[in-house]
Structures are given as C-alpha cells and as structure tokens.
Design a protein that fits this description.
This protein has 173 residues and is an alpha+beta fold. It has one domain (8-171): Diphtheria Toxin, domain 1, CATH 3.90.175. Helices cover 29% and strands 25% of the residues. The strands form 2 sheets. Strands 2-6-5-4 form a 4-stranded mixed sheet. Strands 1-3-7 form a 3-stranded antiparallel sheet. Helix 4 (101-111) links the parallel strand 4 and strand 5.
Length: 173
C-alpha cells in the first residue's frame, strides 16, 4: 500500500507566547521546569506533537488555561517529509494495550524521571512514537490509553534539530 501523502503533518498544542516563540525562533529542548509535573509526560521531557489536530486543540486549551501567561490556545503545524521522518532514528511503540509490557515499563520509567534521552548515559532516542496513556501518575496500574490518538515526541539535541528543519505555521484552533 502506498503512503497517501509525501508530508506528515504534526500538530503541537500550546499558548500564544510559546507558539510565537516557536514560529519566530526555534523549538527548544523541553526540560522539567518548576511547577511542571513530569508524571504526565509519557516519554519524559521533550517536545510533543501528534498527527491528530483535535487532540492538539485539547492540549492547547489545557496549556493556555494552566499557563496563565496568555490564556489563548494556539496550534503549531509542522510539515515533515515522510521519507525524512522514516529515516529518523526513533523508538516506536505500535501497541500500548494492557499486555504491552515494554511500552508500559518505558512510560513508567520516563514518568519516574529516568534519563532515557540522555546521550551521556547511553540513551539516545531522538524521537519516540506511540499511543497516549490515559493512566495518571508514575504508577500505571490501570494501563489504559486515550483512544485513537498518537504522540510523537522529540528529545535531546538531535531530535530537536530534526523538528526545527521543517516549515511551521501558527494558527488558532
């Protein structure tokens, strides 16, 4: 089967200030900041996107509400050539069902603060692709997913420089 398009559209939901910075400057590596709860990041600190615009809208609304900085939800749209994304070194999870122990152990480790994207420690995943966990906190006893949603996160300098190569547009939801 042929891929339906040559371009992968990735969406990032955020607030006005962050969207403007991403458009006018570049994506910066996301690290844990005061007030941020790493227990909600499935794949650890990184720059998160999705192929689902509606999910990015929901994330933008949450981000705008929580940030209090600008209060206006915004979307950043990236156009990534499929061939380049295919060639990017990444960790990919196709399934996150209850029996997907590798996925759930990775999410638990990342949420606990393990340095899975630290090249100094030997973990070099520029990007991670997979489903979105609906489980909350570092202990994932229920193993449930947000239905029909994916996430593509970019980590350490190689992943961040990858996403920065591509055109981006800012729009309101």
């Amino acid at each position: 089967m042929m891929w339906p398009t040559d371009t992968l559209i990735l969406w990032h939901g955020t607030d006005t200030n962050s969207a403007t910075a991403i458009k006018n400057s570049r994506v910066r590596r996301i690290t844990q900041r005061p007030g941020m709860k790493m227990q909600t990041w499935d794949f650890g600190a990184g720059f998160y996107t999705t192929t689902h615009r509606d999910k990015a809208v929901a994330w933008a609304q949450t981000r705008a509400y929580v940030s209090g900085r600008s209060g206006i939800p915004m979307l950043v749209r990236f156009e990534v050539p499929v061939q380049e994304f295919t060639n990017l070194e990444k960790l990919a999870f196709g399934d996150g069902g209850p029996g997907a122990d590798l996925y759930w152990s990775f999410v638990a480790a990342c949420r606990s603060g393990a340095a899975y994207h630290n090249p100094v420690k030997g973990w070099t995943f520029p990007a991670v692709v997979g489903p979105v966990s609906a489980s909350i906190g570092p202990v994932l006893s229920q193993r449930t997913l947000v239905p029909d949603v994916d996430q593509i996160s970019f980590h350490h300098p190689h992943g961040i420089s990858f996403i920065n190569k591509f055109p981006r547009q800012v729009e309101t939801p």
